[in-house]
Amino acid sequence: MATFKTIKQLHDMKRLILLALILLPISLTAQTTEFSKDVAQFEKLSEKYADNDAVTTMSIDRNMLAMFAGDNEMLDNIGTVVIILTQDASIADKIIAESNKIIRRIDAEQLIAANHEGQNIAVYISKDEDIITRIMVTISSGGSEESGVIAISCRLPEDMLDQVVKIANNL
Fold first, then answer.
1. Would you write out the chain's pLDDT as a tens digit for each of its 171 residues?
2. Residue/partner pairs of 1-10 with CB below 8 Å, 24 or more apart
3. How many CA within 13 A on the CB side of residue 91?
4. 123 burial class (0-12, 13-18, 19+ CB within 10 angstroms)?
5. How far apart are CA 106 and CA 55, in angstroms?
6. Model-level pTM?
7. Could you count the other beta carbons within 10 Å of the beta carbon of residue 10?
8. CB 54 within 8 A of CB 87
């Protein structure tokens, strides 16, 4: 498990996890329970780095989400949330490069690209007709700040995309 050298690094880590958790309620309002290929490629990437002490990996499935949300039938619309983060720049470069390969392979559309205080943040989506099936966020700091990827499988109607953009822009 990664350790945090400064309060700012811990704060940045909390912000990234918060982004993933904020996106969850939006995707809970999806209308169907059928999922795409989920985020299996990101789960494999997470498994690759799971034993590395410099990397924090987390995979949250619907059963774990149910523990937080209680008995909520909307949870049927959530697949898995995968979070892979590190403060090690050389490992971060590899994680981001591998994530970008996956993103290109699934032909995801870039929704947001932002550079703030040295952190490059990009949000991608993949769709099945007018339903968003995956939301992926890459965070690259190029230094000792937290870097990595957050991938969420969902069934989100495309018309709810504006809500995702507003939330991401406010972080």
1. 444 455 555 555 555 555 555 555 544 444 333 444 557 889 899 999 999 999 999 888 777 766 766 655 555 566 788 999 998 988 999 999 999 999 999 889 998 888 877 788 898 998 888 888 888 999 988 666 788 999 988 887 777 666 555 554 554
2. 1/53, 1/56, 2/53, 2/54, 2/55, 2/56, 2/85, 2/86, 2/87, 4/87, 5/87, 5/144, 8/145, 9/87, 9/144, 9/145, 9/146
3. 24
4. buried
5. 24
6. 0.72
7. 13
8. yes
| Separation of alpha carbons 142 and 140, rounded Å | 6
Q: Transcribe 55-96 into DSSP letters.
A: EEEEEEEHHHHHHHH-S-GGGGGEEEEEEEEES-HHHHHHHH
Name the residue type at position 94: K
